[in-house]
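Moderator note: this is an archived Q&A kept for reference. The question asked for a predicted structure of one protein chain; the sequence and the answer are reproduced below.
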Amino acid sequence: MAAVASLLLAACATAPVIHTRMAIGANLSRAHTYAFVRHPGTDHGPYTSLTTQHLERAVMRQMQARGYTLVAADAEPDLLVNFRIRTRDRVEGGMGPAFMGSYWGGFGPYGWGDDDGWGGPYGWGWGGYYNNVRTVTSAALTVSVIDRSTRSVIWSGTASSDMSRRQRYHPGKSLNEAVQQIFLHFPVPAGAH
């Protein structure tokens, strides 16, 4: 899970792309309490992953700033919060020259050739090959807010970006920054309750 956590975007050279959705007729300002779902999408075993622990702390800060109170899941909170992380790999690379010789002369079938103007088997020539090939991992963190009474998602925010080296080495900070970016678009602003 730590490797997955490292895939999340943060305040890097480029900001994450944020997408949000809200259910028709939803009013989050009426809610006052929340809890985390028992088995969030970031847990894949009978334990709470480090990723989930980081996300819960980050969401608690954002929800508290908006006046929501964290309660136990069995205390019938107004809202439930879930997390999900998706990753996707793609290969990137460019075309480069395969060979550039240095034989000078006239123009020939392979590039610049010998002095008779028709060229020889060697000279300035171009071929093609892929260079600078690398795998880039894109990650998307989704935070979903669920109406406990109807068991339906009423708001979700997703932050997506390519993984950076910084995120690999500082996953907790990256997760916190991703949550912060998502909650900039939450329909209830900080200090509203």
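Archived answer notes: The helical segments are 2-5, 50-65, 165-169, 171-183.
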